[in-house]
Design brief:
The protein is α/β, with parallel strands linked by helices. It has three domains: about 110 residues, Alpha-helical ferredoxin (Fumarate Reductase Iron-sulfur Protein, Chain B, domain 2, Orthogonal Bundle); about 170 residues, FAD/NAD(P)-binding domain; about 160 residues, FAD/NAD(P)-binding domain (3-Layer(bba) Sandwich). Helix content is about 35%, strand content about 15%. It has 19 helices and 16 strands. It has a five-stranded parallel beta sheet, with helices on both faces. Strand 1, helix 9 and strand 2 form a beta-alpha-beta unit. Helix 6 runs antiparallel to helix 8, helix 9 runs parallel beside helix 19 and helix 15 runs parallel beside helix 16. The protein is globular and about 70 Å long. Keywords: 4Fe-4S, Iron, Iron-sulfur, Metal-binding, Oxidoreductase. This is NAD(P)-dependent oxidoreductase. InterPro entries: DPD_II (IPR028261), FAD/NAD-bd_sf (IPR036188), FAD/NAD-binding_dom (IPR023753), GltD-like (IPR006006), Helical_ferredxn (IPR009051). Pfam families: Fer4_20 (PF14691), Pyr_redox_2 (PF07992).
Length: about 475
């Protein structure tokens, strides 16, 4: 091992080549090139193989990162893929969109020692792309016999698909219900191509379909069937809808035209990229071309919006955030990419009203300063009197976060218990809601979060559903004997 690893002193950190900002701002292609085999092995060999791998500890999926880095350095790529996919249903997706700078890479021991982190995410992507190219990725097959019991999953996003994969491997008949016309949820309609090309998601969905997972698309629970209808049809039901209700800003003029929620804007852009006809995009309402765009917010969704606007041909893109750069919740890597592409960040600003006659023409904004820490531990923004200014805008995108829909009402299931935040309440141990046989996972339980957490929740919930069904099946089988 000593010959292959521990090269972080002699070998510098080296990310895959990134396309020039002037080039990538013209299209929606991914911005990073692929590692060559030699470069991936070289960067993997920088791992220090620490006794307590903080990269693994800070990965929500507890991926065995040091071991698959060692295998990559030694050229054992098929084994590296098998190990990475043992804990992660979608390693090629996490390798692209996980905020590694806040998770595994941000806690790398050699990063703390000043040598620069191992490029974990890029290597994870390389391993999995090699696996796809080499034909090592196969449809999930039941380990053992097919089971007659079925599970209905509401939502084809990362939590639902992760659960579907694991339940299918256990032999269950899996049915996934989704309101959209394609599986993937946020992965398809929320995240732009330059971060996650849609073909990457589509090939995983196709693999699940080949494995026997049945997708029921354009299907809305509450319209096409109630939650009780699905309970009668399946042995267990999993709610994995995610959270899509946009948080709003209550300010004078917020009802003006051309002020839109982030998901409305991103969904239109992604559907257009997929070749769909989107009326509001075709009319120009949701197309930033030739417009001054203002995005309000500081998370990863805001970064997706500003970078999409650049690619659509906006004449100016400003991002307003009420705190400073150091307190921004989004990935610093994404902020840097956005700055390179021409986005102007206006820190310590808070929109107070919107100006315009019928349509928005400007955002009236107050200057802020950071005061004492609030309940979250971060310094709270405090307005500076008399420092207001206007930012011209033809299109304003609100990227203020997401809340759950009123699922008891939507699903026509008033008995479904929710928290005071509107998320579905589950037992921490059984993952079950207050309704027998109904489980929940992902953002609809924990609130708006990362894709990697949704994958973890979906996998854990699949195990809980398996235990629940088997606990009911085994006594019945014994009684029949």
């Amino acid at each position: 091992m000593a010959e292959k690893m521990l090269k972080f002193v002699q070998t510098a950190r080296d990310m895959p080549a990134k396309r020039m900002a002037s080039e990538r701002a013209k299209d929606f292609d991914e911005i990073y090139q692929e590692y060559a085999a030699q470069k991936a092995a070289e960067q993997s060999a920088r791992c220090s193989q620490c006794g307590v791998p903080f990269c693994q500890v800070h990965c929500p999926l507890q991926n065995n990162i040091p071991d698959w880095l060692r295998m990559t350095a030694e050229g054992r790529l098929e084994e590296a893929y098998e190990l990475s996919s043992a804990t992660n249903t979608f390693p090629e997706i996490c390798g692209r969109i996980c905020p590694q700078d806040r998770l595994c890479e941000g806690n790398c021991v050699i990063e703390q020692s000043g040598h620069g982190t191992v490029t974990i995410g890029s290597i994870e992507k390389y391993i999995t792309e090699t696996a796809w190219t080499s034909g090592w990725v196969k449809p999930p097959k039941p380990v053992g016999e097919e089971r007659s019991q079925s599970v209905g999953i509401i939502g084809a996003g990362p939590a639902g698909l992760a659960a579907a994969d694991k339940l299918r491997r256990k032999g269950y008949q899996v049915h996934v219900y989704d309101r959209y016309d394609r599986p993937g949820g946020l992965l398809i309609y929320g995240i732009p191509n330059f971060k996650l090309e849609k073909s990457v998601v589509e090939r995983r969905s196709k693999l699940l379909a080949e494995a026997g997972v049945q997708f029921h698309l354009n299907f809305e629970v509450g319209r096409d069937a109630s939650l009780d209808d699905l309970r009668k049809k399946h042995d267990a039901v999993l709610i994995a809808t995610g959270v899509y209700q946009a948080r709003d800003i209550q300010a004078p003029g917020s009802g003006l035209d051309n002020i839109v929620p982030a998901m409305t804007y991103l969904t239109a852009s992604n559907k257009h990229g997929l070749g769909d006809t989107v009326a509001d995009f075709e009319s120009g309402a949701l197309d930033a071309r030739g417009k001054k765009v203002v995005v309000i917010g500081g998370g990863d969704t805001a970064m997706d919006c500003v970078r999409t606007a650049i690619r659509q041909g906006a004449t100016a893109v400003h991002c307003l955030y009420r705190r400073d750069k150091a307190n921004m919740p989004g990935s610093m890597r994404e902020v840097k990419n956005a700055e390179e592409e021409g986005v102007e960040f206006v820190w310590l600003t808070l929109p107070k009203s919107f100006r315009g006659e019928g349509k928005v023409t400007a955002v009236h904004t107050g200057r802020m300063k950071l005061g004492a820490p609030d309940a979250s531990g971060r310094q709270a923004p405090v307005e500076i009197e008399g420092a207001d200014f206007d930012t011209p805008a033809d299109l304003v995108v609100k990227a203020l976060g997401f809340d759950p829909e009123n699922l008891p009402q939507v699903f026509k299931s008033p008995n479904l218990e929710t928290t005071r935040w509107g998320t579905v309440k589950i037992s921490a141990r059984s993952k079950m809601t207050n309704i027998q046989g109904v489980f929940a996972a992902g953002d609809i339980v924990r609130g708006a979060s990362l894709v990697v957490w949704a994958i973890r929740d979906g996998r854990e919930c699949a195990d809980a559903i398996h235990q629940y069904i088997q606990a009911r099946v085994q006594p019945a089988a014994q009684a029949a004997e």
